[in-house]
Amino acid sequence: MASRSVLVIGADGVLGATVANTFTQAGWHVMRGSRKPDRSDAVLVDLTRPDTVAGAMSAADLVVNAVPDSGLVAEGMAMATGRRIMNLGTAPHSSARNLRIRAAQQMQSGAVLLNAGLFPGVMNLVVAELVRQYPEADEIEIAICLPLSGMSGPAGVNFVHENLTTIGRHGVYDYRSPRHATLAVPFPDPIGRKKCFGFAERDRGWISGVAGARPIRSYAYVDQRWLHSMILALNPLGLLPYVPKAPFLIRRRTVPQSPSAEPIVHWVSVKKNGVRLAARTVECSGVYRHAASASLVLAEGFLRAATHSGLTGCVNPEEIFSLGELEGLLAKEGIRVVPQDC
After folding, report:
1. pLDDT, tens digit (0-9, with 9 covering 90-100), for 112-154
2. Buried b (16+ CB within 10 A) or exposed e, 29-67
């Protein structure tokens, strides 16, 4: 069987490099998309130059985009030219909606899988499964790990800093109340019960489709105790919007030789009338390592759906997969979905 080919956009970054290595180890032919290609398997891809994107895409069975891009330039181009692309970031709700509208109105032949990593991605499948099992739930609760001990590169740090310093009361941005909501979450060991702070409250388009009209309460914790304590101390004072980015970037600008293996535990639960009905955790080790592993599992299924089922358009993971279909494959990669006591 001929090796499948994948173009990884952003292969110079930490996540992109890890994704490229993971696909290579799985037997794929990998082309590393870069604005400054300096190795034999690298190709020029610059999202500000559409001609470079189109040219590189034409040689790949699948494109994986690891670059945060609010305009979804590569995804729109793939849609228009009949290519298949996965986006590993949290695509802005407005951009994703516009891409879906374009696909529906213009009958474009490409296929786009948005929110296709560990978070979002696997977390989408967990939320969808809990909503399916508990349709009476009237609220979704999410708490994620922000692993500063294993985070490298400006993109990851920008994501954390932006959502930490941009305050919202679960979807409503309000300068007059510059404080995150907080919640004590009963994580299993080795994390244990932890007070989390509101995170990414403004735009949860990555999960709004499966949530329906249910409110989504999203929280986070930082795995470095001193930093987590500092965030919790500054939050009630309304000072988090003024925290500079520079300290977060110290020793985090370079791509490490190998991905880290810090413990990651994400939490999902559904509630009714304020009472938890059920909870699941997504557990693994190493945020980049297993974001890449999750993307590989999703890529295999996405390419099958696009090739054999004629999938086109713009979709999220929960629209083409169930957790049950992929749970065993994820477990083989070290990503476990574990039921928790409420």
Report:
1. 999 999 999 999 999 999 999 999 999 999 999 998 766 666 7
2. bbbbbbbebeeeebbebebeeeebbbebbeebbbbbbbb
